[in-house]
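Hey,
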Amino acid sequence: MKSAEPLASGNQINPSDKHDNTRLGVIFGLAAYSLWGFFPVFFKALEGATPLEIVCHRIFWSVVFLFILVTARRQLGQVFITLRNRQILLTLCGSTLLIATNWLVFIYAVQHGEVLQSSLGYFITPLLSILFGFIFLQERLNRWQLFSVLLALIGVLNLAFHHDQFPWIALILATSFGLYGLLRKVARVEAMIGLTVETLLLGPFALAYIIYLTTQQDSSFLAGTLRLDLLLPLSGVVTAIPLLLFVAAARRLQLATVGFLQYITPSLHFILAVWLYNEPFSQGHLISFLFIWAGLGVYSCNTVWKNRAAWRGNRDRQTL
């Protein structure tokens, strides 16, 4: 991969190379978020296995796939270095519990016809991340960011008070993934190495539960269903590939571009829930989503404005 910085000798980046790098980043980003967006289709196909069993297979086969991958890339040493770093390891223990919770609740939502709540949760996540940055990292909120968070809050409260079911699935998904992102930012470890360590931490427990189900003859794996025998191990590969594509995209793109691409996933969840799975979508749902979409619109416009202002400032300094 070409460096994104000028060389020390004074050579400059070829504009065409920079353009190609950005275009490749967009392709990787589109692929990553589109794959995440179609996750409900994949996990719907795993019906017959319980959410906990699916999560355990997802963890175990992710360990196998990522171990092969980091070995092939000669990064196994980085994994062991991370495991010996007590501070990073403690942080990753917390992120491990959060991502496992997120996976479990997401699969539960898919299997119980709550993909719409999954969409809602991942639409809320960017705005919740802003709030977590303010609370835990002392990041300042400007008035437009605060306004965007308030709009999302109104949307959630509308669902809570005007429907029989509290949107707990959406809130758990948003909270767990938002806090997961916060801890991974603090940990400062490469995405693939971090995910490898996280799955390694959970791997023994996942394998133990799989063995327990087998001994109790309650396992869906190797129980005569070819579909599950193929798809359960594939869940590890399905977990890792979008993340690797995302990492490749994030290295090539501006944060604002990545921020826009992330809306692909909940948008696809929304389309699948309403038009493919025919989940109930009332006027109250529409009002709530409109408030949340408005919040995302305000947040996105504010992000673009800030990035343009920063770009102009850097350009003016370079011309001095």
